[in-house]
Amino acid sequence: MRITVVIAAILVATCTGNVDVPPRCCFPKVWEGMMATAQTGPQGSVTTSMMVMSYESSIKKFALQEVNMKFRVVGDYNKMIQYIITPDGKCTTSKLPTDMLACIPDNATFIDSVVYGGPGGMVLDKWTVKVPDPPLEAFITVTRDGCVFVSEVVTGTISGASFFQAIEFSNITYAIKDPAVFNVPSPPCPSDQDVNMVTGKTPFFMGL
Question: Residue 202 and residue 204: Cα distance in Å, rounded?
Answer without folding.
Answer: 5
